[in-house]
Amino acid sequence: RGFAEVIYCPGKTKPHLRQIAAELIRNKQNLLLTRLEKEGFTYLKRYFPRLKYNEQARAAYLSRKSKTRLSSKPVVLISAGTSDIPVAEEARVTLEVMGQPVTKLYDVGVAGVHRLMRHLGLIRKAGVIIVVAGMEGALASLVSGLVSCPVIAVPTSTGYGASFQGLAALLTMLNSCSPGVAVVNIDNGFGAGYFASLVNKDK
């Protein structure tokens, strides 16, 4: 894939995380740890002082400097509401560690669609768009109907009881009537960011 193995942290002990991270650093690889709690980051920071942490995304990262971006077109990252931002931030960290240019548009969901329409010029310049939305998940279809680039939809587990922890948004996105929408699993910001990087690297 052209990128180092990413460390999924739940279920691993702190010494295991330290050992795996050290091996990747020894081999001069970028380091990305997903779903890492703050306590785990504090422990690892003692051994890897340059390690950074995004608390919203629950992701730690250490990337080697790159002089060139993989693409001239940005990945536009859209979140429907502020409660979807942690999943969007996981996608953003993933994209930036992978060297992709990212433009964020947060809190532009269908409940206030005028906020999205103000940015039509920006989203139409994207190489690929990630849409992160909970509740009924309608935003991905709306965005896809406005652009010609691929759209990656990320359902989130935000919403009231009938949203079934993101299942309602997932089914809406899977049943989109707008072509060109790919869907990742519920709350999988990392998967969306990784896939978007693969799509966007040759643009």
Structure summarized in a few sentences:
This protein is an alpha/beta fold and 203 residues long. The protein is 34% helix and 18% strand.
Describe this structure in words.
The structure is a single chain. With 203 residues, the protein is of the alpha/beta class. The protein has eight helices and nine strands. It has helices spanning 14-26, 38-45, 85-97, 113-117, 120-123, 139-144, 167-174, 189-200; strands at residues 7-8, 31-34, 52-54, 59-62, 75-79, 102-105, 128-133, 151-155, 181-183. The strands form two sheets. The protein has a five-stranded parallel beta sheet with strand order 6-5-7-8-9. β8 (151-155), α7 and β9 form a beta-alpha-beta unit. The longest helix has 13 residues, at 14-26. The mean pLDDT is 91.
Strand-helix topology:
Elements: E1 7-8, H1 14-26, E2 31-34, H2 38-45, E3 52-54, E4 59-62, E5 75-79, H3 85-97, E6 102-105, H4 113-117, H5 120-123, E7 128-133, H6 139-144, E8 151-155, H7 167-174, E9 181-183, H8 189-200
Q: What is the CA–CA distance across the termini?
A: 17 Å
- Give the spatial strand order of the biggest sheet: 6-5-7-8-9
Largest sheet: 5 strands, parallel
Task: Bin the helical content.
Answer: 25-40%
What's the mean pLDDT score?
91
Strand content: 15-25%
Task: Name the helix and strand elements from N-terminus to C-terminus, one letter apiece.
Answer: EHEHEEEHEHHEHEHEH
What structural class do the secondary elements suggest? Answer: alpha/beta
Helix count from the secondary structure assignment? 8
Counting DSSP E segments of at least 2 residues, the number of strands comes to 9
**Outline:** globular
**Regions with little confidence, pLDDT below 50 for 5+ residues:** none
Instruction: Report the radius of gyration as a whole number of Å.
Output: 17 Å
